[in-house]
Amino acid sequence: MEPIIEFKDFSFQYKSQTEPTLHDINLRIMHGEKILIAGPSGSGKSTLAHCINALIPCSYPGKTGGSLNVAGLNPEKEGVFGMSKKVGTVLQDTNGQFIGLTVAEDLAFALENDNVPQEEMKKKVMEAAEVVDMTRFLRRSPEALSGGQKQRVSMGGVLVDDVDILLFDEPLANLDPATGKKTIELIDQITKNKDITVLIIEHRLEDVLYKDVDRIIVVNDGTIIADEKPDDLLCGNVLGEQGIREPLYLSAIRHTGQTVAPNDRPQHVESMNLEPYSDGVRKWFKAAPPKAEKSLGDPVLELRHVNFSYVPGQPVLQDISFSVRKGEMLSIVGKNGAGKSTCASLICGFNEADSGEILLNGRDITPLSVKERGEKIGFVMQSPNQMISKPMIRDEVGLGLAVRGVPEEEIRERVDETLKICGLYPFRNWPVSALSFGQKKRVTIASILVMKPEIMILDEPTAGQDFRHYTEIMEFLKELNEKHGLTILMITHDMHLMLEYTDRAIVLSEGHLLTDETPARVLTDECTAEKACLKKTSLYDLALRCGISDADEFVDRFIAWEREERR
Amino acid sequence: MSRMISYQEKDTWIHRLSGVTKLIFLMLWCITSALTYDTMVLVIMILIGASIYAVSRTEWKQVSTVFKTILFFMVLNLVFIFIFAPYEGCGIYGSRTEMIRLFGDIYLTKEQLFYELNVMIKYFTVIPAVFIFLVTTDPSEFAASLNLVGVPYSFAYSVAIALRYIPDVQDDFIRIRNAQEARGIEMSGKASLKDRLIRTSSIIFPLLFSTMERIDVVSNAMELRGFGKKKKRSWYAQRKLMRNDWIVIISAVVFSIAALIYTFYDGNRFYNPF
Amino acid sequence: MEIKKFGIREVVAMGIGTALFVVLTTVQIPCGIPNTYLQPRMAVLAFFSAIFGPIVGAVVGLLGHALGDAIFYGSVWWSWVFPEAVTGILVGCFAKKFAVQEGGFITAPNIILFNIVQIAANAIAWIVAAPILDIVVYAEPAKKVFSQGVVAFVGNIIVIGVLGTLVLVGYSKASGNSQGLKKED
Ligand SMILES: Nc1ncnc2c1ncn2[C@@H]1O[C@H](COP(=O)(O)OP(=O)(O)OP(=O)(O)O)[C@@H](O)[C@H]1O
Ligand SMILES: Nc1ncnc2c1ncn2[C@@H]1O[C@H](COP(=O)(O)OP(=O)(O)OP(=O)(O)O)[C@@H](O)[C@H]1O
Ligand SMILES: [Mg+2]
Ligand SMILES: [Mg+2]
């Protein structure tokens, strides 16, 4: 059989770079395959995808080498238009992808361009809307949709066009666990019904593997490191070596000192053959030390009966009360659109609460301006583009210090130090525009870290991050937290982050505070988890399937142990 | 950010009219209002405008803030006209009827008062038309309409993009201002002109950079989905012209012509009661 | 990115540039004289014209001013809308020369040229076109409209001269710097 995508000794170098971003790429993808592409942030995954849909080199100029054949065409010759008939792309930034004024128009966009008559267009839009389950929202405008819904529209918009190949660039970033799961189901369904070739780029490996994929391709430093069947790859060491997070249940089994064999089908925890491993897991559980308790200081931040709405009559937050103690690491979790980011913006003074009070160190902060609050509270926003204001990386990170009149010499030192922590030091003299998405997000984290605030709020700190960078940043935060008593609030959809790094979780659902509990309990409570669209980690399933009844404790011990190990 | 006027979905016959019709009406209305200075015609236009406003079931609170702003500027404008040219009216109407002495040798004249009254009504004629146009025209359908009346589709689509991204850019603006302020750049309070300029540039800079990036992302996304592939383009939201549309268009044309003939019949655009 | 002829990027720039211009309509810097404000949106117009050329400049000025007036002030002052387009077109005519995206807008001759052009464009727009239209359409007193025109002219050349030049130089530097990038240890 002829491959539908074939790279032969392919290389690409951005015009502005001195070294090729992709090199020695040899890759064959067959018709109907479902492929997962993984790799560290900045390794060239999006670049690879752009070569297939011809954005490279048509929109991002540069030098290509070798040959590339997609569905019998040469993308470089066909141009983006030519390829758009064969390849449908869902970009990394779904907000940018939403072009129409309403959902219906966005779904219709490709058809409009093809000059399809209106009658036929309406029919096709309806069909696509049904596939992605958006029929009830056809007249909605993009501002009124949650992240997950926008993702669905993007998929629908690509599906109307009867393409052969679908490219998804990090479809799960920013989605809550339940919506992420649904998205993967949707992709799976589309693949099966439509006989399409699918490529998914994603850091959240375990979430994608929820449904079968045919092959996993690991990219690092612009070249292909591994190209194997999931079962084989999961049993090898490639993922760990490349700084990619392997599925948690596999890490757990490995930590008990056992090696996983491919024929036990480790792709899904539900169907994996655990028999050879369960004894070992149980034994390890008995031996592992229980998690240590941590002592906490006085409350630094307190919300009391806070209410807020953007549009009068449509409350976004209702009667929210919680307090945060000094030196605590806290997570705020909940479904897309539950009001998490809004809550943070109230704390920082970006919006004014309608009623209720917010106390900082026991004092009401209502009269304080955004700037005054900013001296105490550092906020890393969800989308990096909203924060970056200087063209060059170094200026951007040093901006806060410069504004505060810190001497130049000191700024330089502190900026360099922070850039090293965030893995950006090699790029320190680059313009921000030449960074990948995950790298940009790290720039924003660095720009707040460098100011050493008392309280730090991070909105989705791990979105678009690979495991290695994620760990480095989190460990650094943890260290600040332990040594200097930095208080940290994290808004996240990553259940493992919540379990691993936070002592307590605030769960929001539809604007209400659902629970305020330890992360492990939050996840064990079926009702809460379902309402807030949370998802248990696979460690629970592993524990249960190995016959350990106290699954929470197992998770706790594993996490404590894992972190010890990493130090 | 101040209140702005935006489209409200309702079901009146004005809402059901095609965007082309409303655009043609608005254009003719503006041109007529610009050319005439005849008090009679202006008053009739105000009356028609007011009745259409009533029919469109536009809620007052939707436009009241903006209306107050206009009123403020209008008064200011009238005051300025008086300050700069207290006898402009006398020149136009060719007579001078003094009413009272204000100060020094400045007199308030009947002609000036009548002239400024006309200026005011002239501005007022356009307001209901603009309000109604904005409140009753579905932005999606509007872009389609533009294409229908002969505007090339890439230009028509850029209007759609503008309307689509106004809320987004506004959000960006607010978030960027907040992010900058939180990092220590003072935004509110008194400051010298130089500081204000610096302050503004700390918002405009990132706003422009993120906009440039957005332009790249959006144009890539559009190209990926085949924008500009063909000579012609169909529109999901396009509506055909119905009987009512033709009635409105024809009436508007007839009215404009009649109004202009009436105005210029005596070779002068002003109505002179003096 | 190369400046092709009129392509999708220009269409998008017209749209998003207009949106930006509209949003900035309400951002005004008081400058000491009552009821006179500096308008930062003029810097946006100059920025888009200087990068994307006269057509984009014309549309951003025309559509942006008309929409902004309509949305925020419920009325359209056509006599001030058209001069806005004139400013955009005149500045835009030199876009090729400025070569902003290629990193060309950092040399003194280009910056001086830009400022000469913008001052000339603003003079034509606000001291000539706008007052004349005001007189023709609204029969307003000549003295008043010319004074208003001069105030607008001064305000706009300050905004474009300071803010506009700064953003253009900054942007040009950033795009020009994207050359020969290399990871350093
Ligand atoms: N427009 C560009 N110009 C120059 N260099 C670029 C550009 N886009 C990306 N790069 C460089 O190419 C490398 C790979 O970027 P790419 O976006 O493909 O990474 P990625 O694997 O998708 O990362 P992420 O997971 O963070 O999205 C990065 O080191 C980046 O600096
Ligand atoms: N500027 C705004 N104007 C009006 N409504 C808004 C605005 N910003 C957010 N909302 C609405 O408020 C609700 C809460 O939004 P918020 O951004 O806080 O959600 P979130 O919990 O952070 O979601 P996500 O996980 O998707 O980031 C959503 O329903 C959203 O549509
Ligand atoms: Mg990427
Ligand atoms: Mg959020």
Search tags:
heterotrimer, A: 567 residues, alpha/beta, Rossmann fold, 6-stranded mixed sheet, 19 strands, globular, B: 274 residues, 2 domains, two-stranded antiparallel ribbon, 10 helices, flat, binds adenosine-5'-triphosphate, binds magnesium ion
What do these coordinates show?
The complex is a heterotrimer of chains A (567), B (274) and C (185). Chain A is of the alpha/beta class and 567 residues long. Chain A folds into three domains: 241 residues, Rossmann fold (3-Layer(aba) Sandwich), CATH 3.40.50.300; 69 residues, no CATH class; 241 residues, Rossmann fold (3-Layer(aba) Sandwich), CATH 3.40.50. Chain A contains 24 helices and 19 strands. In chain A, a hairpin with a 7-residue loop joins strand 1 and strand 2. With 274 residues, chain B is mainly α. Chain B has two domains: 150 residues, no CATH class; 78 residues, no CATH class. Chain B is built from ten helices and two strands, in the order αααααββααααα. Chain B has a two-stranded antiparallel ribbon. In chain B, helix 2 runs parallel beside helix 10, helix 3 packs parallel to helix 6 and helix 7 runs antiparallel to helix 8. Chain B is flat. By secondary structure, chain C is mostly helical. Chain C has a single domain, classed as Arp2/3 complex 21 kDa subunit ARPC3 (Orthogonal Bundle), CATH 1.10.1760. In chain C, 72% of the residues lie in helices and 2% in strands. Chain C has seven helices and two strands. Chain C has a two-stranded antiparallel ribbon with strand order 1-2. In chain C, a hairpin with a 6-residue loop joins strand 1 and strand 2. The mean pLDDT of chain C is 87. Classes of the chains: A alpha/beta (567), B mainly alpha (274), C mainly alpha (185). Chains in contact: A-B, A-C, B-C. The site of one magnesium ion has 4 residues of chain A, from helix 14.
Strand content of chain B: under 5%
The end-to-end span of chain C amounts to 28 Å
Structural class of chain B: mainly alpha
Elements of chain C, N to C (H/E): HEEHHHHHH
- Strand neighbour order, sheet with most strands of chain C: 1-2
Q: Can you tell me the overall shape of chain B?
A: flat
- Counting DSSP H or I runs of 4 or more residues, the number of helices of chain C is 7
Characterize the biggest β-sheet of chain B. Answer: 2 strands, antiparallel
Following the backbone from N to C, one meets helices and strands of chain B in this order, namely HHHHHEEHHHHH
Rg of chain C (C-alpha, Å): 17 Å
CATH class of chain C: Mainly Alpha
The helix fraction of chain C, in percent, is: over 70%
